[in-house]
Amino acid sequence: MSATTSSPIEGAPATRARRADARQNADALVEAATELFAEAGVDVPARTIAARAGVGVGTLYRHFPLRSDLISAVFRRELDACVAAAAPLEEAYPPGEALDRWIMRYTQFVAAKRGLAAALHSGDPAYEPLATYFSTHLTPTLGRLLASARRAGEISQEVDAAEFLGAVADLCHGVRPGGAASGRAERMVGLLLAGLRSGEGGD
Amino acid sequence: MSATTSSPIEGAPATRARRADARQNADALVEAATELFAEAGVDVPARTIAARAGVGVGTLYRHFPLRSDLISAVFRRELDACVAAAAPLEEAYPPGEALDRWIMRYTQFVAAKRGLAAALHSGDPAYEPLATYFSTHLTPTLGRLLASARRAGEISQEVDAAEFLGAVADLCHGVRPGGAASGRAERMVGLLLAGLRSGEGGD
Amino acid sequence: MSATTSSPIEGAPATRARRADARQNADALVEAATELFAEAGVDVPARTIAARAGVGVGTLYRHFPLRSDLISAVFRRELDACVAAAAPLEEAYPPGEALDRWIMRYTQFVAAKRGLAAALHSGDPAYEPLATYFSTHLTPTLGRLLASARRAGEISQEVDAAEFLGAVADLCHGVRPGGAASGRAERMVGLLLAGLRSGEGGD
Amino acid sequence: MSATTSSPIEGAPATRARRADARQNADALVEAATELFAEAGVDVPARTIAARAGVGVGTLYRHFPLRSDLISAVFRRELDACVAAAAPLEEAYPPGEALDRWIMRYTQFVAAKRGLAAALHSGDPAYEPLATYFSTHLTPTLGRLLASARRAGEISQEVDAAEFLGAVADLCHGVRPGGAASGRAERMVGLLLAGLRSGEGGD
DNA sequence: AATGAATGAGGGTTCATTCAT
DNA sequence: TATGAATGAACCCTCATTCAT
């Protein structure tokens, strides 16, 4: 019985309709924000988002009182998908390759989401929840992949999963999907992964 | 006794003295901007910078009509020092080590200058001149170091100098000197350098 | 019972009521602008207008995003009244007198609206719409009056309606209602009208 | 012995040189202002004028502490020339034609001096001296021409010289030399002069 | 629950004017 | 006397956020 779910037994269909409406609005807002974050960064004006979603600003604030709430809503689903992509990769490939493939998937995701990297390292407390989401969901996933690869003798460098995720996100910074920088992030992340294999040991 | 140092035996006192004053203001502004860029990013309000320097806004605009002028003034000297540091390293060390040491020097510099990386990838045309400065000064320097290392058989990966510089700058993103992230940038750059040596060739 | 009059039997109360409020603000702004344009010219600061209307600047910009929007709002109604005044005069008086009377009415209107003339000839593109309004509404009206008078053999001079309107507006320039210059504009416009009758023909 | 002429006997040639320099600067400023007033109106920034004259702003303020001082300096010479043009016309032509010709000369002068008319009727006390100059120099000149013409039975309307001068200036408002409005002022002033002849008597 | 009007702080930039040199 | 650096008030305009309806 979460706080956002009201009593399971309620009679008025009107209320239910209301709720459905509200849900639709929230969805429209997330969709609009997704598009606009990609087009113009996470600092796009609130009114612009509301307008794109076809609702009033008030509605935006009702559903997402903090900007970070909207950011989280925008990225959470895809972040979850990213996490979920790990298991199949672990089954289908040997540890080293699973690691590479997952990181590349993550790279493409972050690169595609202009503003995500910026938000993560902005230092603005508003984005704390997003950082938290990373550390509770993505970091353990990468940690597992790294541990497997190490156990299999594939990587020799000691590396902190959170740090690595952050590094990859940073390398996607400023990349616009389809822009001139396309490919840059992937190449640099490739170097990072290659570095992981190098035999000099973790100093 | 350079022209900018006011000689004790002055030739045109009035003008010289005024110039010295103005110069001091410009210096104070650069200093204030340096601090504030580090504390709060390159988007810190013009008024704040002027106040910190103890001058009026008008003075800031007189000396640095464009924001990029101030950015350049803040970073140019140290950027030049960074470029100049390459030659001695090339003489004192074998190519591979010279490369590593120079990159680490560059890393520390960028990490110390919060806001530099952000400015570089902001996409704001105001920072174009800074990007240009990079491509005309730093990129050739790294290009030379990379070429030597490759000739010496030290590195096998194909890599674009500008891309690599950008990647390092990105990895320094969000790092506050002495902050919790300290060391992170260096570690990740180390991985990048290790990746350069890996034998898988440029794909 | 026009659409703009809030009917006592309201259909959609909430929205309607808000609209009424907003409308009142817009009206207050127009009123404040009218006064201030007269007192201090059309270049009076936006904040001053907002303050006089008892609203925030944002409200002013919401209702009148461009300065010319406010200008238009200030003058349009009276401009329309001026246009509408022509027909009755044409019916009630012979062509020559109708022309004189209408021009005098126009003169009094422009003289009462300090800033109108200035705006018209400022050359500032912001006031283009106002000039357009003149050429599409007032100019044809005067054109008709002039044509009738000429047909009736009352005037012999060839004159362009737009030019004549502009001239009258210019003659009202700097006139403050009730100020020392009062009467000056009317006298000079009278001379202009007398000149129209003179028999020397169009040169 | 005007107030601006210092003691006629002074020894130091250096001082004299100084004075010559100062005079040159003042002249350069007047010239620059003349150009800029025509190009951009009387509200052109002080620095722009100083720059065009090749002097510092301080020099501008030394010579013309008030903006109106500069305005006056700019127009006085030509205003004087305008006044001086009356006598020859009075000798060469019959009163009515002398009046017409002088008014047209005045019209062309004012039309050529963008900003003059605006300054005259701005209501800004800064331009008072200019208005005073008008009433003490130009007004009597026109008064004389009008009186002669009336005495000769050429004009029947009663008209105030100052008012008429103001009206002509207003009609030149917004006219840019060589611009689209060229000719408009002359045509309207022609109407005014024709009106002066009309036989309806001064009402 | 939705709306969007209103608020007003905030940041950029320009210039008139002063004044130390 | 000339200079031009410095000052800071004044304007413009844009949002984030609140709240009456």
Automatic annotation (TrEMBL), chains A, B, C, D:
Q: Write down the SUPFAM superfamilies for this protein, in alphabetical order.
A: Homeodomain-like, Tetracyclin repressor-like, C-terminal domain
Q: Which PROSITE patterns match?
A: HTH_TETR_2 (PS50977)
The record ties this protein, via InterPro entries, to: Homeodomain-like_sf, HTH-type_TetR-like_transc_reg, HTH_TetR, Tet_transcr_reg_TetR-rel_C_sf, TetR_SbtR-like_C
Q: Which residues bind DNA?
A: 45-64
Ranges for domain HTH tetR-type come to 23-82
- UniProt entry keywords in alphabetical sequence: DNA-binding, Transcription, Transcription regulation
* Gene Ontology molecular-function annotations: DNA-binding transcription factor activity; transcription cis-regulatory region binding
Which is one Pfam family of this protein? TetR_N
Annotated segments matching region Disordered: 1-20
Q: Enumerate the PANTHER family for this protein.
A: HTH-TYPE TRANSCRIPTIONAL REGULATOR BETI (PTHR30055:SF234), HTH-TYPE TRANSCRIPTIONAL REGULATOR RUTR (PTHR30055)
Put simply, this protein is called: AcrR family transcriptional regulator
The record lists the organism as: Leifsonia shinshuensis
